[in-house]
Design goal:
The protein is of the alpha/beta class. The chain is built from eight helices and nine strands. The structure holds nicotinamide-adenine-dinucleotide.
């Protein structure tokens, strides 16, 4: 099945984890796909990588323009680039708050700002933001990260309202703990990474982590014309974690 035949997509943070799985899935389903990433060196055909830092407006504008030129237009923006932060409000100083908010929230605004003029020309325009269960779950030791994802959730609702009459849908996915290089790096910092992974898996209702491909599947649904009447929603991909 080729749900994305003729559609053109840009995935931020598409060189790793959820973004990589999403870029590969959209391409496998028929889309032409560009990746925007801090380090796109591992991105291979049929994808094309464009180097940019979402915390730098000029680099985002340049990369989006170059990607859109290569794609021949733009139908789908997957706003996925993001970084983590641990601790309570006493653990991160102002500089760290500004740095993480700048990547996780303003980074999505920058990419959307650069993409919107192109999306307005599409017949099937969609933006999907990668949010998190952290937006609403009240997770311990994640004050800063949760605040950024809460902002992404609100941003998604506001953008959906602003752009619905232009034919541009805006939704978000809320992954639970997804098995990506990011989580691998976190586990590697533990004294016993294997035991830490087992404990993390045991805390999941399904007994396992969410896979990056499962998050990609939800993003693909929200990006595809199959969800053409859906805007301003968040789709949980958390193995039943949220609300328990
Ligand atoms: P990852 O670290 O595997 O991949 C993130 C990608 O984003 C990397 O390729 C990285 O180079 C890129 N990136 C980071 N900062 C960037 C910047 N300033 N400019 C451009 N690119 C940048 O992480 P992942 O787990 O795939 O996470 C992707 C998204 O999913 C993030 O927004 C994250 O908050 C969200 N998320 C992840 C999980 C999880 O458990 N893995 C859960 C919920 C939400």
């Amino acid at each position: 099945m080729s749900d994305f035949e003729g559609l053109r997509a840009l995935v931020t943070g598409g060189a790793s984890g959820i973004g990589r799985s999403t870029a590969e899935l959209l391409a496998a389903r028929g889309a032409r796909v560009a990746v925007l990433d801090l380090d796109p060196s591992s991105v291979a055909e049929p994808l094309l990588g464009f180097k940019a830092d979402v915390s730098d407006d000029a680099s985002v504008r340049e990369a989006v323009a170059a990607a859109v030129a290569w794609l021949g237009g733009l139908d789908i923006l997957v706003n996925n680039a993001g970084i983590g932060a641990q601790g309570t409000v006493e653990d991160n100083d102002d500089a760290e708050w500004h740095r993480v908010l700048d990547v996780n929230v303003v980074g999505m605004v920058r990419a959307a700002r650069a993409a919107l003029p192109h999306l307005r020309r599409s017949e099937h325009a969609a933006i999907v933001n990668t949010c998190s269960i952290a937006a609403t779950a009240g997770l311990p030791q994640r004050a800063l990260y949760s605040a950024t994802k809460g902002a992404v959730h609100s941003l998604t609702l506001a953008m959906a309202a602003d752009h619905v009459r232009e034919g541009i849908r805006v939704n978000c996915v809320n992954p639970g703990t997804a098995d990506t290089p990011w989580i691998g790096r976190l586990l590697d910092r533990a004294p016993d990474p294997a035991a830490e992974r087992a404990a993390l898996e045991a805390r999941q209702p399904t007994g396992r982590l969410v896979s990056a491909d499962e998050v990609a599947g939800a993003i693909a649904y929200l990006a595809s014309p199959l969800s053409g009447a859906t805007t301003g929603t968040s789709l949980a991909v958390d193995g039943g974690m949220h609300g328990l």
